[in-house]
Amino acid sequence: MSKELTGYATGWFAVATSDELPAGGVLSMKYFGQKLVAFRGDAGAVRVLDAYCPHLGADLGVGGKVVEDTIRCPFHAWRFAGDGACVEVPYATKIPPRACVKAWLVRERNGLVFVWHDLLGRAPSYEIREMPEHGSPEWTPWTFNQITIRTQPREIIENVADSGHFPAVHGTHLEQFSNEFVEHMAIQRSAGVAYPRGGGSDKFNLTATYYGPSYQVTEMESFIPNRLINCHAPIDEDSLVLRFGVMLKKVFDDAKMAKYSAAYINNLQVGFAEDRQIWENKVWRDRPTLCDGDGAIGALRRWYRQFYPEVEATP
Ligand code: FES
Ligand SMILES: [Fe+2]
User: Fold this and answer.
1) How far is the CA of 68 from the centre of ligand 2 (A)?
2) Is the CB of residue 80 below 6 angstroms from any atom belonging to ligand 1?
3) Cβ of 1 below 6 Å from ligand 1
4) Residue nearest to atom 3 of ligand 1 (CA)
5) Of 60, 131, 144, 199, which is most buried by a Cβ count within 10 Å?
6) What pTM did the predictor assign?
7) Backbone torsions φ then ψ of 263, nearest 5 degrees
């Protein structure tokens, strides 16, 4: 990690897929260098709390159970509501007023569970837009996958502007490539021909948009029109979880669509494995030696700094 940007960006981070949290589900997580617990209570909403119980410190995510719309600690069965307040101590006459854990702001959108992270504790400055394709009968459901990568978020983000790596790392032939940065959005428009590692070729034309510092949606015209999600959440300052998903326009029967979904997600996985080999072995350069064909890497970095208010504040 360079000295320039440390800590974690401000924004919405996807920390789970909706499928990872069925009704009554509990998920133990580590993000932003902290243990968290997510659960889906009776009311249907996903809640995310700091994991360690204020009583004697048990991890609510390891053995904790959903009871109605609360989570019950595995150690002495204190129960916590979605706002983090303790609502029951089964063997006490009075609930200690300080018995509460931090509750994270949560949004469930497009099949993902997001938490709002801001070191300064401010309210969200943007929202995750609902995708009309999600849940539409004309589109397949998401196929999601995830990998853990030993790197830091800026490397992932930089792919959006780094046109030079596509032919070298992914074997992609680019015919068009441009970037635009608008408020919390970083947009890439590109067209070319992809050569999936399994063989064949696929002409594509896409718009890939980061909404905030970690969540990207791609709208792609190709052999089968598709939507991709690529989002990361930092585990700590040196590693992160990258989630990616694919949704296809239903242009064939269900069996064929399932086959294509599997092929597309596999191609994505292969692509990220190619990036990962670079990311896990490279160093970060605050002052890279760039050339005229490198495009908008500098502009992308300036865009990304807006999510580090403590850096923005220092000239
Ligand atoms: S540690 Fe959680 S109830 Fe005691
Ligand atoms: Fe890449």
Assistant:
1) 44
2) no
3) no
4) 76
5) 60
6) 0.95
7) -70, -40
The two structure tokens encoding residue 73: 């600690």
Distance CA 141, CA 133 (A): 9
Tell me how far apart the alpha carbons of residues 222 and 203 are, in angstroms, rounded to a whole number.
6
Lowest-confidence region among 5-14, 175-184, 222-231: 5-14
Is pLDDT above 50 for 2? no
Cα–ligand 2 centroid distance for 265 (angstroms):
15
- Average pLDDT of span 165-192: 97
Q: By alpha-carbon position, which residue is closest to atom 4 of ligand 1? A: 76
Sorting pLDDT into bands at 50, 70 and 90, what band is 315?
A: very low
Assess contact for 69 and 79: CB atoms under 8 A: no
Over 80: is that where the pLDDT of 16 sits? yes
Which is nearest to 177 in space by CA: 301, 297, 307?
Answer: 297
173-182 and 143-149 as β-strands: parallel, antiparallel, unpaired? unpaired
Question: What tokens appear for 241 in the block?
Answer: 């979880």
Q: Give the Å distance between the CA of 159 and the centre of ligand 2.
A: 5
Cβ atoms of 155 and 148 within 8 Å: the answer is: no
